[in-house]
Specification:
The chain is an alpha/beta fold. About 40% of the residues lie in helices and about 10% in strands. It has a single domain (about 30-430), classed as Rossmann fold, CATH 3.40.50. A hairpin with a 2-residue loop joins strand 4 and strand 5. It binds 2-acetamido-2-deoxy-beta-D-glucopyranose (3 copies). One 2-acetamido-2-deoxy-beta-D-glucopyranose binds near residues 421, 422 and 425. It holds the Pfam family His_Phos_2. It comes from Spodoptera litura (Asian cotton leafworm). One of its GO terms (cellular component) is plasma membrane.
Amino acid sequence: MKFLIITAMCFCVKTVLTLDCYWNTGCKYKYFSSKTPYEIVRGDIRDSIVKQEECETISVWSMLRHGKRNPSQRYAEDMQFILKNYKDYIVSSYEIGNSLLCAQDVENIKNWKINTSMLDEPNELSNEGYQEVLDIGRRIKETFPELLTNLRENEYKFTPGFGTRFEESANAFIEGLNDNKLIITKEYGDYTFVAPYSTCGKYQVDIRNNPNIYHEVDVYEMTEEYLNMRERVAKNLGFNFIPSNGNITAMYDLCRYSWNGLLHKPSPWCAVFTTEDLKILEYVGDLRHYYRNGYGAIKFSNVLGKLPMADLIRNFELAKRGNGRKIVSYFTHATMMDMLVVVLNLYKDPTPLMGSYRNVHRRYRSSFLSTFGSNLIAVLNRCRKAHNYDYSVSLYWNEKPLTEICNKGTCSWQEFEDIFTPFLNATDDICEFKWTQIN
Ligand SMILES: *[C@@H]1O[C@H](CO)[C@@H](O)[C@H](O)[C@H]1NC(C)=O
Ligand SMILES: *[C@@H]1O[C@H](CO)[C@@H](O)[C@H](O)[C@H]1NC(C)=O
Ligand SMILES: *[C@@H]1O[C@H](CO)[C@@H](O)[C@H](O)[C@H]1NC(C)=O
């Protein structure tokens, strides 16, 4: 938990010269739920790797969310609407003196040019997303250079989920490992480990395609806090009407999808919102993730999340016996990361997240859990001990030690077995039938 708080705090001193502008505030709010660039929240495995005396790493297992992608068709259309109908209006209300935005912020929105592929190629991995995952692969290679050099065919496995953004992420990761012989393994039709929910009939019907699961979001969007936010946006933009929830979301999407993490380049569209507004919108994302894939859908998340964890322990058991793989990586959705959080019992609040009340001290924060490129990395170490070997497993979330588990993120083999062996019993019986419309 501690690292969450530290990352979430902003240490910079605000030096606003005249008005409270977005372009010149040193302390911009950068947490955009599951559309947060990885760069904003990541650690660095090269620094955080736990080194133990007389030990060597013999296997690395990881689950990674794809890197930054474009918005889906539906959200892209809503963003297109803003560009066509609201953008000029934002500029003209400023010109006639109705807007509370700063001159430079309006100028930046006016001059902002979209990279059209963001809206024309729904769901595809963006350039930034490719680079995010490439960089993760590169840092992993630099952390384990001996282990990951000259990998033979049966020593690795890279498995993407269904769809190009996962395959592209896997390719990016391999490029980062800097070994062009490596190939990805597509598991046509069998997503047991990489995305078990995608073929899980009961989950798709009861949760994924059930609009009632967003009940708490609907409640939140009727609270005074949320309604005041909409009014504030209207007032700041100088609109004589209050934008719909959908149009607020579309402006939020313009802000977060065009915030370039790797270039540390904020989006001028974020100037539409105050920091408080951004926190309110972030909470909407938290509620959605919580009730779709998290503790709010525990009947499914707590079962489906165990399937890849069983694969993790199985791989490490094999590696321990000398016939495992040196590296296994899966390229998946935010959904999977959300479910792993539940299975590992992380970032759990004593009471459920509610629409009626936003707890600003909540532990559950999608901005840190299912960020673009978010990942769980598990490292199996073999340590020389008198006449035989001892084993330990270190766990990392977003390249930081997962301190909530074992001693600062490193488990003895016994501790690891105690936590992970029960996962071996998980099945997908709960799914009842197979869902075939994978998207
Ligand atoms: C727009 O984005 C695409 C994909 O991310 C990239 O290939 C292209 O170079 C970008 N274009 C510009 C002008 O930056
Ligand atoms: C955005 O606002 C327009 C009216 O200005 C409305 O017709 C449209 O449905 C809204 N879009 C969304 C996604 O709510
Ligand atoms: C796993 O299943 C086996 C056989 O069904 C059972 O004996 C065992 O107690 C189960 N273990 C756990 C940890 O649930």
